[in-house]
Amino acid sequence: MLELILTRPDERPLIQTAKGLRFLVLDELHTYRGRQGADVAMLVRRAREAFSSDGLQCVGTSATLAGEGDFEEQRQEIARVASRLFGDKVYPEHVIGETICRITPEVDTSSQEFIKDLRARLSQAEEEPLKSYQELCNDPLSIWIESALEITKEDGTGRLVRCPPGSIYGDQGAARKLSSLTGVPEERCAAAIEKQLLASYECARNPETEDTIFAFQLHQFIGTRYTLPLSLKTSAT
Q1: pTM of structure
Q2: By the 8 A CB rule, do 89 and 80 touch?
Q3: How far apart are CA 162 and CA 231, in angstroms?
Q4: Ramachandran area for residue 101 (φ above 0: left; ψ -120 to 50: alpha; else beta)
Q5: Which of 49, 111, 114, 211 has the most Cβ atoms closer than 10 angstroms to its Cβ?
């Protein structure tokens, strides 16, 4: 749309009104690469000239923009790419990453005392799930889930980062890891994890923020060889 505005004679009044534009925000920054990245980089430069904005500040946002190495190395690479895209110097210290905090208590999940508590908790998995937010936070199964599936410490810095995405089932799944740790059958571990995640989503919420304990996400990809009804196709797209 910005490209169109800059080329349509009828939009000249809008361009005049926006003279001295201070900020230009580009969302989904990770998508601007290759030819599209070059097109967007040229568009930013044309916008700066068209709006007479020598002091234009570009802001890029992305939930998935990262690279190899630790956070400081990632910031340097992001700053380099952003500088090329924006046509202006971006410094690594101006790259802001997410700050992650633990919700459950930090304990040694490999200690025999914790494993004993966790095993005892799994033996009660058939009971009603915990309802209270504070109960759920202090529950051994919640502590293990957050430590094993949610967050981990970055090597070298100790900074809290997200764990790589994983599954409950499979050879590398959470249920298999929990079963190996506690000796509880894998099927029971899987059921307990599912119930705990659902309880955190459906029942127990932070009384002040209404946030859930776990920020778990479900990405579902459906493929089929069969022709779907038109209505289903439409809703899926």
Answers
A1: 0.72
A2: no
A3: 38
A4: beta
A5: 114
